[in-house]
Design brief:
Elements lengths: L19 H5 L3 H12 L10 E2 L14 E5 L2 E8 L6 H16 L15 E8 L8 E5 L16 E6 L6 H6 L1 H16 L5 H15 L3 H6 L1 H23 L4 H27 L12 H10 L3
Parallel strand pairs: 3-4, 4-6
Antiparallel strand pairs: 1-2, 2-3, 5-6
């Protein structure tokens, strides 16, 4: 499969709620490849796919990762690096918003049934916590009063995509497989270097080894900044679970992470424009980083 099949990885908008996963699966051919891998199908007509990913944040500053309608199904797929049993509730919010937009011109008071695509929910998990290869989360598990026959149910299938897990799925979607290889390299690098250096090395090594090479080359600065932000956020979530922080402190840390990520992205863009990306490895040195921020007035 040639990467041109993925719409040549359109340049990402400067949206700091975006993730590398969302950037990768922005185009129709990429989404169809993911659909085929999950459903073990071989569809090729990507233009028949209608993207329905929500444009606006709908839950705690986050939007759904990717969603689309294809083959009379509404697929909502998420990527998670932390364990999240509340995913069915989040997906309930997401799917409600999507369906509301889809039926806005329909008469819901009519005697005729309003047809909607069949919703399907999946999560691709690649965090450090040990998880089964495949499992389900159910909305009814969150109910305060358990019943044998819940009148509202939503089932999310969780696929563990860490190395050695769901290999048939990963082989079916080259883009997802190489995304796992990229994130695995960051985690391996983190064992002996700081986060920033780990991300930069993973990006450069993957480009050298032909892993997401065209995507990483085209959007190097964005990927580095977003990866740093994602792993900082993951660390923050873990710390938040382990400690009982005051709400104000937690909010302040979130804002600090976002601000640092934005500064780093702007700096990398300035360096790229001035042909200084060969100096990116030096950014792990705090003195050099401060010097570059001062140089560009960031």
């Amino acid at each position: 499969m040639n990467y041109t099949d993925y719409d040549a990885f359109p340049v990402a908008e400067r949206n700091y709620k975006d993730t590398v996963f969302r950037m990768l699966f922005r185009g129709k051919p990429a989404l169809l490849s993911l659909y085929n891998a999950v459903n073990k199908t071989n569809f090729t007509n990507a233009e028949d796919l209608e993207i329905t990913t929500l444009d606006n944040a709908v839950y705690m500053g986050m939007k759904n990762d990717v969603s689309w309608v294809f083959a009379f199904e509404l697929s909502l797929y998420e990527h998670q690096s932390t364990v999240n049993p509340n995913m069915p509730l989040r997906d309930l919010f997401y799917v409600s918003g999507i369906l509301q937009k889809m039926v806005t011109e329909k008469n819901l008071y009519s005697r005729r049934r309003v047809a909607i695509p069949t919703p399907r929910f999946a999560v691709f998990y690649n965090g450090n916590t040990r998880m089964p290869e495949k499992m389900e989360y159910r909305l009814s598990e969150l109910f305060q009063k358990q019943t044998d026959n819940p009148e509202l149910e939503l089932i999310v299938t969780v696929y563990n995509i860490n190395p050695g897990m769901n290999e048939e799925l990963l082989e079916g979607c080259r883009l997802l497989k190489e995304y796992v290889q990229f994130t695995t390299r960051i985690r391996e690098n983190r064992k002996y270097m700081d986060l920033q250096a780990a991300v930069i090395k993973a990006v450069d090594d993957c480009i050298r080894d032909g892993i997401l090479a065209e995507f990483l080359t085209a959007q190097r600065a964005e990927v580095i900044a977003m990866s740093i932000f994602e792993y900082d956020q993951e660390k923050h979530i873990k710390q938040e679970k382990e400690e009982s922080w005051e709400d104000g402190y937690a909010d302040g840390r979130k804002e600090g992470i976002k601000e640092n990520q934005q500064r780093m992205l702007l700096l990398l863009q300035k360096m790229s424009e001035n042909g200084e990306m060969h100096l990116a490895d030096k950014l792990q040195d705090e003195a050099f980083l401060a010097e570059m921020y001062e140089k560009y007035g960031i």
